[in-house]
Amino acid sequence: MNRGPIFLIGPMASGKTSVGKALAKLLGCEFIDTDKIVVQRHGTIAEIFARSGEAEFRRLETETLKEVASSYSVIATGGGSILSPENRALISHSGTPVYLEIDEAAVTPRLRGQGARPLLAGDDPVVRWVSIFAEREQIYQELAELVVDARRKPPRVLARVIAERLDLLPGTDLHTDVDLDNAAPHGDDEQTN
Description:
Blueprint: E1 6-9, H1 16-27, E2 30-33, H2 34-42, H3 45-52, H4 54-68, E3 73-76, H5 85-94, E4 96-101, H6 104-111, H7 125-143, E5 146-149, H8 155-165, H9 174-177, H10 186-189
Parallel strand pairs: 1-3, 1-4, 2-3, 4-5
């Protein structure tokens, strides 16, 4: 990779971490999860929200993005990282933003059984997700240099699609390697990462 990091952007549960791991492995580069770095340094996201509020979490998120933006890597960003104009500028000027596009139907089974996400707290996390996504969708679209449909394909296939569309795997013909139309849905491959 010689064009800076690839930033995976998209809503909660769009697959940024699992696709990011697969893409980094495919490209032979480092994978960085900004939420994981924040958690390692400051406690769980739920603890940060309870102790200091969302604004403090967003500040820590920006601090982390600044640290990793110059690395040659695949970076999974937090779903709300794009809310900050500073973060959007950093992402767009430092590397390639790739939006993992997903919808309510695809995210519903992914949200079942997952750990607590502070922004989805309440009776129906899917309803909260839809509301948050509606507020952010246009920002994801506008920031992205590449939009990838992440609703049905497994992470390894999405990684190859991204690498090919960014011209990072010259000479690869995806259609002879993987039947993209009949690949297993994203959720079926989650446990193999």
